[in-house]
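User: My instructor asked us to take a sequence, write out its structure as tokens, and then describe one feature of it. I'm not sure where to start. Here is the sequence I was given:
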Amino acid sequence: MRRAFIPLVMMLAGAAPGLAQQGPLADPQTNTPAPARGGVISPVLTIDSERLFRDSAFGQRVSREIEAQSEELAAENREIEAALEAEERELTEKRSQLKPAQFRLLADAFDEKVQRTRAEQAAKNRALSEALDLERERFLAAAPE
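Assistant: Let's start with the prediction itself. The structure tokens for your sequence are:
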């Protein structure tokens, strides 16, 4: 029982039998010191694929293109919004001159137009996001393993 107790105490104290001569941040297999900045040596390599894509020339080019297209879409959205607001004001001004049934038909048609336009613009926005995702996947698929 006493033999099992001593290694356990040494492990709890931060040393294992046979490894006590190594430095505190040494590689247990080669007894080489750990990097100067105190990083942990690990047999597992973690790759930040998003950063790899973002920092690559390909990823930067794709990001610039998607950003430019996003800016164009935002400008288009502002133009559409202004046109729809003007159309809504015009419809509101006509309300007093129209019978309720006539106004309801125009208002319903306008509402359908607004909903359709929103759906179309949202689809364009999704297409940009999907294009970015597709390019990212293409980049990662081309990366050597």
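For the description part of your assignment, you could build on this observation: Confidence is low (pLDDT under 50) at residues 1-23. Try explaining in your own words what that tells you about the chain.
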